[in-house]
Design goal:
The complex is a heterodimer of chains A (about 280) and B (about 325).
Chain A (H helix, E strand, L loop, with lengths): L1 H10 L6 H11 L1 H18 L1 H4 L22 E2 L5 E2 L10 H36 L4 H14 L3 H12 L4 E3 L2 E3 L1 H29 L2 H9 L3 H37 L11 H8 L11
Helix pairs in contact in A: 3-5, 5-6, 5-8, 5-10, 6-8, 7-8, 8-10, 9-10, 10-11
Chain B lengths: L3 E13 L4 H6 L3 E13 L3 E5 L6 H8 L7 E6 L2 E2 L5 H8 L2 E4 L3 H4 L6 H11 L6 H13 L16 H13 L5 E5 L7 H18 L2 E6 L2 H7 L2 E6 L2 E7 H6 L4 H9 L49 E3 L2 E3 L2 H7 L1
Parallel strand pairs in B: 3-8, 3-9, 6-7, 7-8
Antiparallel strand pairs in B: 1-2, 1-4, 4-5, 9-10, 10-12, 11-12
Classes of the chains: A mainly alpha (about 280), B alpha/beta (about 325).
């Protein structure tokens, strides 16, 4: 009798994958729904930039007689083309540039977060596993040193060290974009390392790790096959929080002229160029 | 007595009292978790290891499975010193020694299915692959009394007893000879405890397993063990056949432990009650470690000299009362 009750209870399907669990919790929270919608809009803007943008973001248009570039919003050029947000001082469509800028910015942020996660998770996992040994000390002290610099200062220093533009390491040539991703990833990886180490320490105290050790699993196997799955939720949360700050950092880098180089559309660069016209044409900014 | 499968000689494990290496520079004190433990277990036997929290029984179990490196001493498994083994030789022995843990919710990875959990030891040792693996998994969970449909379930979908059965199945997966059971029923409901204990005993018979059974529940130990070792503050104070120990306990500590077991008899009379706390294992009392709480201590002897574990009719006991008798 007791057994039967048990089985039916299980037949109810208490199976829940990580994704289902996430969606269930996400739905319940109104604020996260609104936030999710905004993020989705940005994502669509970024992904479909080539379709949404009315003009080529680097093409220069001529202002009609009596007007000069930059043109204010809703103005038309010599050939009667409409510019919803106007043009910049080189006569390029601001709307198109903003769309493409968002695209590159998100690529940049996503890429650097991914690399930062990879680096940080690896460092944190090893440090946590080797807790209390010199390996742990070495990794965590390095992390501390990196964290003691303000993020932007560290990023600027790294760009300074690598040089502006593409980077050549032996036969390997990294495009400017990849190089900036790497710079931002390096500056953010210590934060992931910290969090990862804490979670790994917590998980290492669980008996399933002891069980794997008793069976003869190697340290690498324990970390990758047992512990890692249990750290994913925490790392994802950390990653999505960091995403916002990496967007700011990469925009700041291009604002300072250390990031993406013109004529590539980038929000930071656009801000900088528009700065000169703040007084009489705030709309550019 | 049959051939000894496992023999522990002079096992010592000290933990640093200070938290990290920096604090250890200034604080060299150690916690004497296990301080000179000897015992042996014959093939097919169950040795019960009892003691209060902090008596070192869990540490002993973890040293035997090489989860913890001992400070000194030998752990001879089938003639090989486990402590010295490294690399491949160690992995080979690990296939023969398994462990069942106290808390099955912690010992099972919550993101893995029962099938993945039980398959892991087999995969690590590369024993069975492909189709045969599924059959073997069904067989192993069957041994532990679970139906194969549980293989696709996650631990949180199981009851405590079922989870512990998964823990047992995982231990059995590599066909070990020796299993350390670290309080395997402590976390379970009393009604489930008996089921799990009987399962363990049936498995022992069927697969001729040898157990080191760690527990603090005396009735549980009495039920499953052939011989029992009583630990106090990192030392074995008495070791005897289960019937001898429970009918004629000799060490005053064992006597007090047994007297503390509640008896459903209103006429049983006043219980012998131990006073005071277990002393700190950082600074254990000199001489016999039990002397500050012992009702039968011999002044001038017990607080000075540490009693050795000596043979005394059918068992071993570490107490000056019996050392005198032997002479």
């Amino acid at each position: 009798m007791v057994r039967e009750i048990h089985t039916t209870e299980y037949e109810l399907g208490l199976h829940q994958t990580l994704l289902q669990e996430f969606w269930h919790n996400f739905k319940k929270n109104k604020l996260s729904l609104v936030g999710g919608f905004i993020v989705l809009c940005y994502a669509i803007m970024a992904i479909f930039a080539p379709l949404l943008a009315p003009y080529n973001p680097v093409e220069q248009f001529d202002a009609p007689p009596g007007m000069r570039n930059p043109m204010p919003p809703l103005s038309r050029d010599v050939d009667g083309r409409l510019f919803l947000l106007g043009t910049d001082k080189f006569g390029r469509d601001i709307l198109s540039r903003a769309l493409y800028g968002t695209r590159t910015l998100l690529q940049l942020a996503g890429g650097s977060i991914a690399i930062a996660m990879l680096l940080g998770v690896a460092m944190g996992a090893v440090a946590g596993y080797k807790k209390g040994t010199w390996v742990d000390e070495l990794i965590m002290r390095t992390v501390d040193i990196m964290l003691s610099f303000p993020t932007l200062v560290l990023a600027i220093a790294l760009v300074g060290a690598f040089g502006i533009g593409s980077l050549r390491i032996g036969p390997l040539v990294l495009s400017n974009m990849v190089k900036i991703m790497l710079v931002i990833a390096i500056t953010y990886s210590p934060r992931f390392a910290r969090v990862m180490r804490a979670v790994v320490l917590q998980e290492m105290a669980e008996d399933y790790v002891a069980a794997a050790k008793v069976t003869g699993a190697s340290g690498f196997r324990i970390l990758t096959r047992e512990v890692l799955v249990n750290t994913i939720p925490t790392i994802i949360v950390q990653g999505s929080l960091m995403m916002a700050t990496t967007v700011l950092t990469s925009a700041s880098l291009s604002f300072l002229g250390l990031g993406l180089q013109p004529p590539r559309p980038s929000l930071g660069l656009m801000l900088n160029e528009a700065r000169d016209y703040l007084f009489w044409g705030a709309c550019c900014t | 007595m049959a051939e000894a499968l496992l023999e522990v000689r002079g096992l010592v494990k000290y933990f640093p009292a200070a938290a990290d290496w920096f604090a250890q520079l200034f604080d060299r004190r150690v916690i004497r978790a296990v301080d000179g433990v000897d015992f042996s277990i014959s093939r097919g036997e169950t040795l019960g290891l009892v003691g209060e929290s902090g008596s070192g029984k869990t540490t002993t179990g973890r040293v035997v499975t090489r989860l913890i490196e001992p400070t000194a001493g030998q752990v001879l498994f089938d003639g090989q010193d486990l402590v010295r083994l490294r690399g491949k030789a160690l992995k080979a022995v690990r296939k023969r020694i398994q462990m069942i843990f106290q808390d099955p919710s912690s010992s099972l990875n919550r993101r893995k299915t029962v099938g993945q959990i039980v398959a892991e030891p087999i995969r690590i040792h590369g024993l069975i692959k492909g189709q045969a693996l599924q059959a073997r998994l069904a067989e192993v969970v069957g041994l532990a009394g679970l139906s194969p449909k549980f293989l696709n379930r996650y631990p949180h979908e199981l009851s405590g007893g079922q989870r512990q059965r998964v823990g047992i199945a995982r231990a059995l997966a590599v066909e070990p000879e020796f299993i350390v059971c670290d309080e395997p029923v402590t976390a379970l409901d009393v009604s489930i405890q008996a089921q799990i204990l009987n399962l363990l005993m049936d498995l022992q018979e069927e697969l001729s397993l040898t157990y080191l059974f760690i527990a603090h529940d005396l009735s549980v130990v009495r039920h499953v063990s052939h011989r029992v070792a009583v630990m106090y503050l990192g030392k074995v104070v008495e070791l005897a056949e289960v019937d001898t120990l429970f009918s004629r306990p000799r060490h005053p500590y064992t006597q007090a432990l047994l007297a503390a077991v509640p008896r459903p008899d209103p006429r049983a009379g006043k219980r012998q009650v131990l006073h005071g706390e277990v002393p700190s294992p950082i600074a254990p009392p000199p001489g016999c470690r039990f002397h500050p709480r012992c009702g039968r201590r011999i002044e001038g002897v017990c607080e000075v000299e540490e009693p050795p574990l000596v043979e005394a009719d059918g068992g071993q006991v570490a107490c000056h009362l019996y050392a005198k008798e032997g002479n």
